[in-house]
User: Which sequence fits this backbone?
């Protein structure tokens, strides 16, 4: 199986594999000058085939794991993108709501000013009279003030 391993472990595996190959090659060298037989070559070929099949199986397992991881990441990215789209729509709705509330607040402010203006229209400003001079009864104070000013305008 192909896994991420410590470099020392991978060197040990390589050493073990090369030792097996060396043993078989050693058999060839041990045979030295003796002719290489068909059965020896067949067993060597079969051994290589088994190792290649194991390697293929290990690589296939790793590829399946990687595909699974990629699929999982793709689903997660898709979910994040979907959430981002829905958040964008929510933000647009909230911005529209803010604009609507701002317009409503302006209308209410204008209505409040319209309600205040008529009451101010009935007020009279008297300049030169200190504030609080009217005492408890402002009506009597203003009547007395105008009566005292009447001969000036007659």
Assistant:
């Amino acid at each position: 199986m192909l896994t991420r391993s410590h470099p020392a472990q991978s060197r040990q595996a390589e050493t073990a594999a090369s030792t097996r190959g060396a043993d078989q090659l050693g058999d060839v060298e041990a045979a030295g000058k003796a002719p290489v037989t068909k059965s020896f070559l067949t067993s060597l070929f079969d051994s290589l085939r088994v190792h290649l099949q194991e390697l293929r199986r290990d690589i296939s397992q790793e590829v399946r794991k990687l595909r699974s991881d990629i699929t999982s990441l793709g689903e997660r990215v898709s979910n994040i993108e979907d959430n981002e789209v829905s958040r964008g729509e929510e933000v647009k709705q909230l911005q529209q709501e803010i604009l609507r509330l701002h317009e409503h607040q302006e209308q209410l402010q204008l209505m409040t000013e319209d309600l205040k203006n008529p009451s101010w229209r009935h007020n009279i400003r008297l300049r030169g009279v200190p504030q609080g001079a009217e005492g408890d009864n402002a009506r009597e104070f203003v009547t007395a003030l105008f009566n005292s000013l009447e001969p000036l305008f007659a």
About this structure: Helices lie at 7-31, 38-121, 138-153. The mean pLDDT is 81.
